Amino acid sequence: MLGRLAIRHRLTPALEKAGGHIGYDVRPSARRQRHATAMLAAALPLACSLGITHALLTCDETNTASQRVIEANGGRSIDMAGHKRRYQVPTS
Ligand SMILES: CC(C)(COP(=O)(O)OP(=O)(O)OC[C@H]1O[C@@H](n2cnc3c(N)ncnc32)[C@H](O)[C@@H]1OP(=O)(O)O)[C@@H](O)C(=O)NCCC(=O)NCCS
Q1: Ligand 1 atom 45: residue of nearest CA
Q2: Residue owning the nearest CA to atom 40 of ligand 1
Q3: CA nearest ligand 1 atom 47, residue
Q4: Which residue numbers delimit the N-acetyltransferase domain (predicted)?
Q5: 3-state SS assignment for residue 44
Q6: Number of domains in the chain
Q7: Which terminal CB of the chain, N or C, has fewer other CB atoms within 10 Å?
Q8: Which residues touch 55 (CB under 8 Å, ≥6 apart)?
Q9: Ligand 1 centre and the CA of 47: distance in Å?
Q10: According to the model, what pLDDT value does residue 89 have?
């Protein structure tokens, strides 16, 4: 197992602030090999097929790796919710 990714079909008020539609992590020994970037790219068409046109993703303001993963997949920063930066990522 290299990592895991979860697609949340619906947002709750809590997920709107932290968590969003998609969350992921990569095993520490397998990081920096582009797995997370590829995992998110593979997940976006699945989210689209669930009717999510723009996925909400959140990450800590200090999480540079996750921010790069999101931006490499077309994510656009929309705002901050507490210490979380929120992004909108088109799914198609
Ligand atoms: C965030 C995480 C999923 C990234 O996984 P990964 O497979 O290492 O990411 P990638 O290899 O696809 O790297 C994506 C970009 O981030 C950069 N990056 C990776 N780790 C980095 C680090 N520790 N510091 C700075 N940049 C980093 C890579 O260089 C790459 O940049 P590039 O596109 O400009 O070349 C992984 O670090 C992780 O599991 N972290 C803990 C859980 C977590 O934070 N999940 C996300 C919650 S929002």
Answers
A1: 25
A2: 25
A3: 59
A4: 17-75
A5: helix
A6: 1
A7: N
A8: 20, 21, 22, 44, 47, 88, 89, 91
A9: 21
A10: 98
Q: Give 3-state DSSP helix, strand, coil % of the chain, rounded to 5.
A: 35, 35, 35
List residues near ligand 1 (CB under 6 A): 23-26, 31-37, 59, 63-66, 68-69, 72
Q: How far away, in angstroms, is 70 Cα from ligand 1 center?
A: 10
**The domain spanning residue 63 has which CATH number?**
3.40.630.30
Question: How many residues comprise the chain?
Answer: 92
32/17 Cα distance (integer angstroms): 27
Task: Express each pLDDT in 46-62 by its tens digit.
Answer: 999 999 999 999 999 99
- pLDDT of 4 reads 98
